[in-house]
Write a structure and sequence with these properties.
With 216 residues, this protein is of the alpha/beta class. Helices cover 38% and strands 21% of the residues.
Length: 216
Amino acid sequence: MLFRDRHEAGKLLAQKLLDLKDNPDAIVLGIPRGGVVVAYEVAKALNLPLDVFIARKIGAPGNPELAIGAVASDGTVILDEVSINFLGVSKRYIEKEIERQKEEIRKRLQAYRGGREGYSLQGKIVILVDDGVATGATTIVSLRAIRASNPSQLILAVPVAPPDTVEKLRREADKVICLHTPSPFWAVGAFYLNFEQTTDEEVQALLAELMPGEEK
């Protein structure tokens, strides 16, 4: 085990980002659900605002855990054409899944923010945080979508990820901070002593504490 829980992982990540403490141009974005817990500790330690950024996996027919692509809240989509062709996935299936995931993203943003507006990312130093990365599909679509918002710098900060995935992510972010790159790599949860599922209510509470009520 590398981390006791997500809170500990976030505090350790924050130590690598202390140069951004109190920076008025920086913001922390957490990927729900578990990534928000890690992001909360980073934002709290650096005295920065916290928001969510949601990307959803597009699962294969009959196997939703197998990602054949991903979609972000701004509509950015990436597809794994090799897997799609190998599995013979139809265009109609993909289109329906994209719309289904977009609707799920809209619902979750409303629930998590409680009606608060998200922050503008243009010109900001954006720190995207998750509790770990395996294949990187949803992380890549998140980074590309954030990049389209024209931040001044895009940083990815994660506690753990496999070495090959980190190399892929370095091509998408200006800077990648990853505390551990174990090989062989199992599931992200294998590197935590406590990896209980984070609830929507916990995400709402953490955001409410560090995301002011007024519109940004």
